[in-house]
Amino acid sequence: MITVVGSINMDLVVETNHVPGKGETKLGTSFSTHFGGKGANQAVAIARLGKETGMIGACGTDSYGEKALKSLKQENVNTENVFLFPNETTGIATIIVSEADNRIIVVPGANNLLTSGEIERVKQQIIGSEIVVIQLEIPAETVQTVLKICKEHDVPVVLNPAPVDNFKEKFIDLATYLTPNESECISIFGENMEQSLERYPNKLIVTLGDQGARYYDGEKHIFVEGFRVEPVDTTGAGDTFNGSFAYGLAEGMGIEEAVRFANASASISVEKQGAQGGMPALGEVLLRLS
Ligand code: ADP
């Protein structure tokens, strides 16, 4: 079983031709809701591949929380250890999409109430996992507690350091694998990527968008090439990569093989709309790899 510890959000997407300025009201062209949160997305990525997946997270008891939980269950994600907080809202991300750019406001709500206290209550699930996957849309202190439990009990843990503002230096030694994208890597370790990779062999794996991903194996730099596709929507590429990478490791692949598997899986996800919309089943990934 793979456990994902992280955020559960509802994405509220508004499309408009005109972004309002101060004091203005504008008409938008469409509104849609999507299941999101890096934690939930990564859990769905793993479950789609057919692996037993457990989610540790938090929701409110509002309609968004109910819908998010129902959807996770439908995706075969075990939600027994998702905590419900009646006096808090489920996390939401309001995304204003215009031709010029995307503007996003995240209200973490219940995600911020997932504290070390909750983690202690579900410690057995963490200890019993083949691998744990975690990101930074929950309190940093909670992340640290999970990383410490994993280290103490020799459970490998993939830390996807996003959003990077919530990253703490002490996470580096506690995590087994760190999977920033290029800009997150630079923001954590500085401009010299070669040097950073060499400092953390077989731990630091940097994703490079359509180029794939790279890491240092202790002797040489390994570039694992991405798959050439016509991208439709790259939202959730990183989430698909992380979930699939963890899946690969849990299935006994080495790092290079797991990264190649994750590149293939993420390349399929960018061919469809939405973060979760394009996440592939195992057969599709194997087909792309063949
Ligand atoms: P993030 O989505 O977190 O910013 P990246 O952009 O590095 O991270 O993408 C994560 C992974 O998704 C890449 O390592 C790659 O495997 C895959 N990917 C992203 N964009 C593309 C693309 N345009 N074509 C093919 N694969 C892609």
Question: Helicity range of the residues?
Answer: 25-40%
* Unreliable stretches covering 5 or more consecutive residues: none
Computed CA radius of gyration, to the nearest angstrom: 18 Å
Shape: globular
Termini, distance in Å? 26 Å
Mean pLDDT comes to 97
State the helix count: 11
Largest sheet: 7 strands, parallel
Strand content: 15-25%
Number of strands: 14
Q: State the secondary-structure class.
A: alpha/beta
Write out the distinct hetero groups bound to the structure.
Answer: adenosine-5'-diphosphate
Question: Helices and strands, in N-to-C order?
Answer: EEEHEHEEEEHHEHEHEHHEEEHHH
Summarize the structure.
With 290 residues, this protein is α/β, with parallel strands linked by helices. The protein has helices at 38-48, 63-74, 116-121, 123-127, 140-152, 171-174, 182-189, 193-199, 237-250, 255-269, 282-289; strands spanning 2-5, 9-15, 30-36, 53-60, 77-78, 82-85, 91-97, 102-107, 131-134, 157-159, 177-178, 206-207, 212-216, 221-225.
Name the descriptors.
single chain; 290 residues; alpha/beta; seven-stranded parallel β-sheet; four-stranded mixed β-sheet; 14 strands; globular; binds adenosine-5'-diphosphate
Topology:
Blueprint: E1 2-5, E2 9-15, E3 30-36, H1 38-48, E4 53-60, H2 63-74, E5 77-78, E6 82-85, E7 91-97, E8 102-107, H3 116-121, H4 123-127, E9 131-134, H5 140-152, E10 157-159, H6 171-174, E11 177-178, H7 182-189, H8 193-199, E12 206-207, E13 212-216, E14 221-225, H9 237-250, H10 255-269, H11 282-289
Parallel strand pairs: 1-4, 1-9, 2-7, 4-5, 4-6, 9-10, 10-11
Antiparallel strand pairs: 2-3, 7-8, 12-13, 13-14
Helix pairs in contact: 1-9, 9-10, 10-11
The structure holds adenosine-5'-diphosphate.
